[in-house]
TrEMBL record:
EC number from the UniProt entry: 5.1.3.14
Listed GO MF terms: UDP-N-acetylglucosamine 2-epimerase activity
Domain of life of the organism encoding this protein: Bacteria
SUPFAM superfamilies: UDP-Glycosyltransferase/glycogen phosphorylase
Record CDD domains: GTB_UDP-GlcNAc_2-Epimerase (cd03786)
UniProt KW keywords: Isomerase
Domain UDP-N-acetylglucosamine 2-epimerase: 23-367
Keyword Metal-binding annotated: no
Catalytic class of the enzyme: isomerase
PANTHER family from the UniProt entry: UDP-N-ACETYLGLUCOSAMINE 2-EPIMERASE
Family from the record: Belongs to the UDP-N-acetylglucosamine 2-epimerase family.
Species this protein is from: Thermoanaerobacter kivui
Signal peptide per UniProt: none
Protein name: UDP-N-acetylglucosamine 2-epimerase (non-hydrolyzing)
Length: 384
């Protein structure tokens, strides 16, 4: 009888990273793979589902305008209870650090179902940064049976917390698998404005900043620094896909709207964003996922946060954590615009996050854990 696996996710970043795993699960005759989305984010999630041709078996559709974390938690928990009562899966797969991730692991625990945590073991060691993700990830880890750690650093974090080594599998990050589906040299953007940019002669900076801990003064600092970069470096072109959250949009548009060499866009579809990053000069972001994706494209990343739970790329040299102080953000951006040696040092660093085979390692690990094979997958070594 086939092993029944339900993959649960609710946001665009989760969907991007779970998509290649779901496609791989679909090809396995030993597994009955089902997908449940909470739709904690709706529109941005749907873009990814269409891109990867994934049709969920269950869609809880919990998103409401200005929803609180408590509302997301309770709505998802009640919805998942119905799904798990109906399906009675052998394994629930969750990803990363969203509220959906934690709640799905908790719901599985309540039903005595095993949990597999994709991208397990990342830690910032500060419960408020990123908020609420750091605690979501730690709580999920407590409830998890199979920990799919992307790097040896993540494995080390789990071991220090008392997780048994036999339950940890170092797999690489599935986001690198996903990019094999999306990045193409002959890519044509659906937004014509992106096709008209001279990527060869303009230093295109792609920016994303929207995390909760950056709301208010930190985001104002970031935007004012970008404004000064745009004014002082006319050979640059800043492209900022702005998150739909009204708090973010109000700040960003009030400071950056109307500048000739700044393009403010709605959030881009996954394939558009990946191909834009492939063409750009560098990325400035507070996103966790982009810290993993961009290094595989050979572009420097300046992280607009005070801490990161992804230290591997910092150690490798392709990512630099710069915080949100206005002058520091400006200075670090200017350094990479002016200093070719500093730029090349970051652009040529090795990506520690994956080789495109993480999904296959995870499937092998599941087979091993459920005694479908006696062969344990080899650990991904790129994070050392």
């Amino acid at each position: 009888m086939a092993l029944k696996i339900i993959s649960v996710f609710g946001t665009r970043p989760e969907a991007i990273k779970m998509a290649p795993l779901i496609k791989a699960l679909e090809r396995e005759k030993n597994f009955q793979s089902k997908v449940c989305v909470t739709a904690q984010h709706r529109e941005m999630l749907d873009q990814v589902l269409r891109l990867f041709n994934i049709t969920p078996h269950y869609d809880l559709n919990i998103m409401k305008e200005k929803q609180t974390l408590s509302e997301i938690t309770t709505s998802a928990l009640i919805g998942l209870e119905r799904v798990f009562n109906s399906e009675k899966p052998d394994l629930v797969l969750v990803h990363g650090d969203t509220t959906t991730t934690f709640v799905a692991a908790l719901a599985a625990f309540y039903h005595k179902i095993k949990v597999g945590h994709v991208e397990a073991g990342l830690r910032s060691f500060n419960k408020w940064f990123p908020y609420p993700e750091e605690i979501n990830r730690k709580l999920t880890g407590v409830l998890t049976d199979l920990h799919f750690a992307p790097t040896t650093t993540a494995k080390s974090n789990l071991l220090k917390e008392g997780v048994s080594e036999e339950n940890i599998f170092v797999t690489g990050n599935t986001v690198i698998d996903a990019m094999a589906y999306t990045v193409r040299k002959d890519y044509v953007f659906r937004d014509e404005r992106l096709n008209q940019i001279d990527y060869n002669n303009k230093k295109v900076i792609v920016v994303t900043a929207h995390r909760r801990e950056n709301w208010g003064q930190p985001l104002e600092n970031i935007c004012n620094a970008l404004k000064n970069i745009a004014k002082n470096y006319k050979d640059t072109y800043i492209i900022y896909p702005v998150h739909k959250n009204p708090v973010v949009r109000e700040t960003v548009f009030s400071i950056l709207k109307g500048l000739d060499n700044v393009l403010l866009l709605d959030p881009l579809d996954t394939d558009e964003m990946h191909n834009l990053m492939a063409k750009c000069y560098m990325v400035m972001t507070d996103s966790g996922g982009l810290q993993e994706e961009v290094p595989s494209l050979g572009k420097p990343v300046l992280v607009l946060r005070d801490v990161t739970e992804r230290p591997e790329a910092v150690e490798a040299g392709t990512v630099k954590v710069i915080g949100t102080e206005q002058q520091v953000v400006y200075n670090e951006g200017a350094l990479l615009l002016e200093n070719k040696e500093e730029y090349d040092k970051m652009a040529n660093a090795v990506n520690p996050y994956g080789d495109g085979k993480a999904s296959l390692r995870i499937i092998q690990a599941i087979k091993y854990a459920f005694n479908l094979t006696d062969k344990k997958p080899e650990e991904y070594k790129g994070g050392e």
